[in-house]
Amino acid sequence: MSAIICKELCKTFHQGEQVITGLDHVSIEIKKGSFTCLSGPSGSGKTTLLNAMGGLDTPDSGEIWVGDTRLDTLARGALADMRLHNIGFVFQAYNLIPVLSARENVEFVMQVQGVAKGERRRRSDEVLAEVGLQGMEDRLPSQLSGGQQQRVAVARAIASKPKLVLADEPTANLDSKSAAELMALFESLNEQHGITFVIATHDVRVMGYARRLISMRDGLIISDEAQQSHSMVV
Strand, coil or helix: what is 81? Predict the structure, then answer.
């Protein structure tokens, strides 16, 4: 079964009079329950592809299917609803709300979903424990290390029980130990809960966790290989 299907995606950007190719007729299928990395240098198109998959950016042409829903033709409200209930996002900059506690940050998406207060509390504490932050539920982001903040971001992404998690350079601001712990957490969530992960990265240590490694350059997929995942070396 497919989690995502992209067909002939094209995307260009304009910088003054210069036209930059973000995606050049990219077609790809991501299987449910898979663990995939998109790799490549800055400007290769990996983040553009990831954002298109998550409905954060719209291609100029082509089709994007998440399950049996065509994402690129949805109206704004339907697209927001689709993302809210089906896709979790983990960003390089964490994107936590600084005045909210770890628990409140995790609860935020569920609150928007309309989940009852008691259930939000139960589920947020459960996932914070799962990502190793039990006892830190009431701390503000400023009271947490970078690695701990990223774990809150992961807890927020999975608390709403998405089928798909998209992560953009999730280890970029982490030291080696925190990065290894985060990738081990992703691997565990993938194996235990069947969550589909697609990670955009240029970190070779992260690529080692992928069971499928897709390399991009100049908006093109230049290689697509299955591989045996292995632990990150700290």
Answer: helix
CA distance to 34, 35, 50, 63, 65, per residue, from 7 (Å)? 19, 20, 14, 5, 9
- Tell me how crowded residue 95 is: count the other CB atoms within 10 A of its CB: 12
151-163: pLDDT as tens digits: 899 899 888 788 8
How many folded domains does the chain comprise?
Answer: 1
| Span 164-175, pLDDT tens digits | 999 998 888 888
CATH number of 129's domain: 3.40.50.300
Task: Give me the residue label for tokens 């082509």.
Answer: 62
Structural domain containing residue 157: 33-59+73-226
Q: How many other β-carbons are positioned within 10 Å of the β-carbon of residue 39?
A: 22
Give the pTM. Answer: 0.88
